[in-house]
What we know:
The protein has 681 residues and is mainly α. Helix content is 63%, strand content 6%. It has 30 helices and eight strands. The chain is elongated and about 85 Å long.
Amino acid sequence: xxxxxxxxxxxxxxxxxxxxxxxxxxxxxxxxxxxxxxxxxxxxxxxxxxxxxxxxxxxxxxxxxxxxxxxxxxxxxxxxxxxxxxxxxxxxxxxxxxxxxxxxxxxxxxxxxxxxxxxxxxxxxxxxxxxxxxxxxxxxxxxxxxxxxxxxxxxxxxxxxxxxxxxxxxxxxxxxxxxxxxxxxxxxxxxxxxxxxxxxxxxxxxxxxxxxxxxxxxxxxxxxxxxxxxxxxxxxxxxxxxxxxxxxxxxxxxxxxxxxxxxxxxxxxxxxxxxxxxxxxxxxxxxxxxxxxxxxxxxxxxxxxxxxxxxxxxxxxxxxxxxxxxxxxxxxxxxxxxxxxxxxxxxxxxxxxxxxxxxxxxxxxxxxxxxxxxxxxxxxxxxxxxxxxxxxxxxxxxxxxxxxxxxxxxxxxxxxxxxxxxxxxxxxxxxxxxxxxxxxxxxxxxxxxxxxxxxxxxxxxxxxxxxxxxxxxxxxxxxxxxxxxxxxxxxxxxxxxxxxxxxxxxxxxxxxxxxxxxxxxxxxxxxxxxxxxxxxxxxxxxxxxxxxxxxxxxxxxxxxxxxxxxxxxxxxxxxxxxxxxxxxxxxxxxxxxxxxxxxxxxxxxxxxxxxxxxxxxxxxxxxxxxxxxxxxxxxxxxxxxxxxxxxxxxxxxxxxxxxxxxxxxxxxxxxxxxxxxxxxx
Length: 681
């Protein structure tokens, strides 16, 4: 039997952790709102479906982990994704996961899901924290009140997960729909039932649950109104019903419905939730927040923490590990080189392997430890719950440049990779905020740029490498701020939407989660190194070794690639790096920014980091190197990020974004080059 189950809940309530427990998957889990921005799919482990209820059945239960939402109103991309899944994805059942430490707020979504008339089971997560605080929830009484199955669980510890899987499969197989729907009273009750009578046939024709459609019309949900296709007379009657309700309650339609739901939740939890105090995590969080979110000290503390992270990453730990790996790669390259020479391999293929593949891939691979160290510290800050506070603190500053604190979330993710960062803009409810954020996101230093930074800083600024690295990261943020100010006053006029962010409790980072996060990044880096970078290195070697008649050239400047690079070189000459090899490397950098390093390694015919550094010093001055670093920092992102940009904001806006980013990079690099020359660098 094949069944499809949706996993739905508020942000940061443990959906992805539960998803991993049920499916055995290794999706990234973070103590940070907005980790999931699109549905992830897996299959519930069949071991859960044993017992009399499933005798003779072979169950394949597909589980879809949906983005965290607070309601089914179509105001954000996450809400639209989830609502579309419920209305057109045809799930057989849903698991509504709740944060048991904040059950009142979480039940608001539960009441809306009940109206969808889809078989469902409520999972009360974090029950271990409830017990540790001396609190309790009468699960049986809650079940009787809601008339749906309620299962207490602790997703992080695996408690209750087996029972939950069995309950939801049973509900799906037996089509056990929620029974209780009429939890309203007074004028709201009258409005909902009057509208239900008005739209009965329309809801059936649109294949929408009647109660859900009626409450959405009370809220003023335009997509539902269009689906129902009411005539003008019916729309007029609908308007009168809602107006009468608003006049009777002296409030607007959305507030009236919200008040009704929370009033019912208060009645339900009064006798089922017994609190004697806050959880240890909540008490600890309040004490820590008194310092870390302090009005005056919050930003200096954040800058101090990030300075320490960068120092450890680019100086004390990361550079040492990268140096050891670089030595190991050099040793392996030398051994292979000697072996190929002894074997007497054709010199052309010998060059391809050593000067092409080993030089290209090895030059990038040596920087992997630095990247993983950076991700380790960022994961530590994210999983602890600190980064959510930073977004909250940054809201005031971001509003001054036309953004809300919610834009900080994708900007932070951008330090890892621009692709998920751009996807994370789906959490922004304003189209204006989303486009403005996407325009400036590539100015954040993604991890792919790190090998380029490390190579050039160690070559030209060895005594100040860490300072230059930090300056590049901060410089990217400064340019993003200036660009946002420019765009806010020209293309994207308007004000940012209000910022609401749930601050998760501080928790000790999970070693398993962090190991998973870092292993994912390592896997992604290695995949790029041995696919995109390797392929690019081979192509670059061929184009550098052969001319247009496919003859082996005596020197690279007579190759096919030289003619292409020389055509573009004049564009970069005012920036100090008009050499055709640099322009070629910047073009290949559009496949992946690490390709800039691998391309230069191939073009310079070197196989070790030291030789590459020496070669760079022959045709680049420190001023030009600094300008090149600025250009790499700011110019358009890789093709994968471009594709996601086009998907998120449209082709026209995507093209405009690429042109804006590259123009900004040219102007900034030109300015830096001339300043550096004036200072005698």
